[in-house]
Amino acid sequence: MDKLLGKAVDKVFGDDDDKRPQGGNVTHGGAYPPSGGASHDDDEDLQGAASVAAGHAPEDQDFFKDVLGSLLQEKPKAQIGNEDIDEKHTIESHKQFFGSGDSQGPASSSSVGSAAALQALKLFTSGDQGQAQGKGGQNAFVGLAMAQAAKLFDAQASQGNVEPGADKQSAVKKAGETALKLYLKSKGGSAGAGAGAGGGLDGLLGLASKFL
Q: Could you tell me which residue ranges the DUF7721 domain spans (predicted)?
C-alpha cells in the first residue's frame, strides 16, 4: 500500500472514537472480535468467517456462506490477494458513512461494502487488546466486515438511501472481498502457503499500522 492511503485514512478516522455511522447504524462496543463468536481456523473456504458474521448480524450463517461461496467461485483467494485495492473509492466510501465529510448520496453495494471493510479494520484493532488476544485472524476479520456491511446496508435501506439496483448480498460480498484483500496483503500480498496461519492479533495490528 502506498503512503497516500495511510494518510487519507488518518483523516477519515481521526481520533474521535465517538463517531457513529450516518443512518443510525450502531456498532458493537468493546473489544473485537466480540467474545460471542468463535473465529475458527483460517480455513480456505472461509466458512468460519460466515459463522462469525452470523453472530453479529441479523442474517443467518447460510446467508453468509452463500455470499462467500459466490465470491470464491468468481475469484480464488490467490487472485483476490494479488489484486489492488481501489484506495480512493474505499476511503471516500468510509468517509461517506462513518466520517463527517461532505460525501452524501445514495448508497451503492460497492460503497457500503468498501466502507464496512475499513470500519471493521478500525474496530478490530481498537478494542481491548488483552481480551482480543487469540481471537483474531482471517475469518474473524472477514466475518466482522461482512456483518458491518449487512447492518450498514439495512440502515441505509431503512432511510430509502439505497441506489437502484443495489442489494445486500453484493454489499456483503464487496466487504468480504475488500477485507480479505487487506488481510492477505498484510500477510505478504497473496494467499500463498501459510497466508492464513499465525495472523491473530499481531497480524491484524500490523495491518492496521499501514492505515491507522
A: 45-128
Is the peptide bond preceding residue 21 cis, with omega within 30 degrees of 0?
A: no
Reduced 3-state DSSP string for 43-85: CCCCHHHHHHHHCCCCCCHHHHHHHHHHHHHHCCHHHHHHCCC
In a domain, 23, yes or no: no
Q: How far out from the chain centre does Cα 69 lie?
A: 17
* Greatest C-alpha distance within the chain: 44
- In degrees rounded to 5, what are phi and psi of residue 179? -65, -40
Domain membership of residue 144 as a residue range: 3-10+43-209
Tens of pLDDT along the chain (212 residues) come to 444 444 433 433 333 434 444 443 434 433 444 434 444 445 667 889 999 999 999 999 999 999 999 999 999 998 999 999 888 898 889 889 988 655 568 999 999 999 999 999 888 888 643 334 345 688 999 999 999 999 999 999 999 999 999 999 999 999 999 999 988 887 765 443 333 434 555 666 666 665 55
- 105 falls within a domain: yes
Residue 56 lies in a domain: yes
Tally of domains within the chain: 1
Q: How far is CA 123 from CA 30, 83, 157, 205, in A?
A: 9, 24, 23, 11
